[in-house]
Amino acid sequence: MRLRLFFVVTLAAAAALPGLLAAAEEERAFDYAYVNMERLVDEYILFKEAKKEAERKIDEARVEDLEKMSEYQEKLVALEEKAAGPLTPEAKAQTKEEYSALRREALDFRDTLLAKYKRIERDAFEPVYKNVYEKIASYAKKEDYDVVFDYSAILLYADEKYDITEDIVNELNEEAGISK
């Protein structure tokens, strides 16, 4: 029943859309532009500098991190050799448990390192992206653009008067029984 209602509402909305768009276009056309973010990242000097800085910091961190990973690897190899040797069934089972625990620990450490490297990259690029988005917004306002898209059609800027997020959130919260 709900699915059928959803389709009926969707079809009604789709049928009404051309008329709504035509009415909106008659009222005022949108001024829009796009930015090729891929090209911007390739060509903006601060992106290049941030990339070099992130790579330098990650390389520094990897020297110490590789030592720790080598220690894990050596311990794992030693436990494998121990488990392959002549052991009682109980000792063999305990060695396998130690190996499994150490392997999980090494994998957790690896995941921690990957997260650390991503954090280094994020920290290096975050201020650059912030600057880029601020520049896009100020340029769009200066040139009177209503909407700016990324070349791949990802919205990068829109005049706040077109943002209906607050209205939608308020209505959803009211429906959920939460008032502002």
Short account of what is shown:
By secondary structure, the protein is mainly alpha-helical. It contains five helices and three strands, in the order αβαααββα.
Are there runs of 5+ residues with pLDDT below 50, and where?
A: 1-17
In round numbers, the mean pLDDT is 80
What's the helix count? 5
Instruction: Give the % helix.
Output: over 70%
For the largest beta-sheet, the strand count, sense and barrel status come to: 3 strands, mixed
Order of helices and strands: HEHHHEEH
How many β-strand runs?
3
Largest sheet strand order? 1-2-3
Beta-strand content: 5-15%
Structurally, the number of domains stands at 2
Structural class: mainly alpha
Tell me the span between the first and last alpha carbons.
32 Å
Name the overall outline: elongated
CA radius of gyration: 28 Å
